[in-house]
Amino acid sequence: PTECFLSQPEEKQESTVKAKKRKKKKISDVLQKSAPKPGVPADLQNLLSQHFGENRSVIEIEELKLSDSCFLPANDLTHSFSSYLKEICPKWAKLRRSHKEKKSVVMLVLCSSALRSLELIKSMTAFKGDCRVIKLFAKHIKIKEQMNMLEKGMFHIGVGTPGRVKALVEQDALCLNSTKYMILDWNWRDQKLRRMMDIPEV
After folding, report:
1. For the residues 162-181, what does the mean pLDDT come to?
2. Cα 176–64–195 angle (5° rounding)?
3. Taking the complete model, does pTM exceed 0.70, yes or no?
4. Residue 1: what pLDDT?
5. HSE value, Cβ hemisphere, 13 Å, CA-based, for 9
6. Are residues 61 and 115 in the same domain?
7. Is the same domain home to 78 and 61?
8. Are 187 and 197 in contact (CB under 8 A)?
9. How far apart are CA 159 and CA 136, in angstroms?
10. Domain that holds residue 62
């Protein structure tokens, strides 16, 4: 009986090791097939037409199309986040000084998770200087708290997730009229290797 008892956990250990090895292979295969490349306007334009194509008329889809002039150059993956923002927004100091509206931000950064939002906030330190940044995600922050902050304070940059930003816009807590820049964190992948645009809810 003791021999049987000893042989069982050993078998389990072997099978778990094999399973782990298989998973690692799959991840590396996926990463090799989809190497990160700079986003282009066509990426977002195609995504919009795919998403709305089924339930919109031809005229409505035409109205949804964003012209190439709406887009700034994408990060060519050689820049840090701060240096990229400096390149696309050289007049940031002037924009920041002239921004006086509450319930709004000059720059809105959208990414797939709360943790990624915090990462991006840390990595933009050199760019943002002394301007105010608001966290627009659901993790540990209630929507009412964010609504109060937007109503009472003045913020220059908002960093958050699409779900929470959408909820704030729908409740008139966040106004996008004075937003000049919208940055999409296009290439970053989560633990499941999904980009923001691969998540069905987004």
Report:
1. 95
2. 75
3. yes
4. 46
5. 4
6. no
7. no
8. no
9. 6
10. 40-71
